């Protein structure tokens, strides 16, 4: 049985996937994960979970974020405001811009292929 | 357990000749057990049942080498060199117990697991028994080793539970227990300076008390798993008195093996088990 292992470096960090271990049950999985995925790295916490318990949906199964241009959803009203006073707003905007760029590129590729 | 030396703590510069001889015996007992146990455990590398168990046992072996390092370092403070402690030391001067030198029953993972269990329970007891030692340099090293030992016992007991889960497994583990138990008793055999070790307060428990604690710990645990612990007074003990330097033949083969590279390579400065801290 395969257990996926997630490691948190410091309190408050998110647990990040670091690999897996073969183990018959949860207790042995934690025992092995401690050695295999935490003995050389600073670790505050480890999660193990059976691979079968992870629900997965892939880009083949779903059109993540839709297929059409979504820029009509953007809030334009505040566009002229300098958002640098609020880091998270600026970050969010640049993330959206980046996501939109990627989506446009993907759409263009699809069209070219078609 | 305290990491602050007790008020009557003895510094190494203040040791009398008798005290120094007793401390050395105590340290060699500890160090040799760790070193030889680790040396044997490494034989499982690439042979353990799965990659994961392979890594776990190799890691335990490394921990034990690290503990041997702690105790050999203390001997080096007393004037010994690395070759005198390990590589050029006469095999009849090694004072480890007969349990750790035993060759593994090839492919019998239960042997490795049970041996680890018997050893790790004993190690916890004897580390606790030196936590309040009167020998100051030893006192501050015990806590760290004890913390690492918790994983070793968890590893051993988790495996034991699983290997005794059915009748077939229980029968095999009973064979391993009957095989290992007499040798394991030698963990608590005294050496020539045992009385001094206790009288000077280097260890705060007698070997007899430690042996009783060990029997009272492993007995109920193993019986709960369906195993019968032999009567310690009835079993035939293996030849050799490890703590006095007499050993089984298997030890001499092992010694030749792990010192072979040292002798062949003939470094001007021998490699160290690990770079010394400090």
UniProtKB/TrEMBL annotation, chain A:
NCBIfam families: paab_haloarch (NF041867). It comes from Natrinema altunense (strain JCM 12890 / CGMCC 1.3731 / AJ2). Residues 88-114 are annotated as: Disordered. Gene3D superfamilies: Phenylacetic acid degradation B. This is Phenylacetic acid degradation B. Transmembrane segments: none annotated. Pfam families: PaaB. Signal peptide: none annotated.
Automatic annotation (TrEMBL), chain B:
GO terms for cellular component: cytosol. It comes from the Archaea. GO terms for biological process: phenylacetate catabolic process. InterPro entries: Aromatic_CoA_ox/epox, Ferritin-like, Ferritin-like_SF, PaaA_PaaC, PaaC. It holds the Pfam family PaaA_PaaC. PANTHER family: 1,2-PHENYLACETYL-COA EPOXIDASE, SUBUNIT C, PHENYLACETIC ACID DEGRADATION PROTEIN PAA. This is Phenylacetate-CoA oxygenase, PaaI subunit.
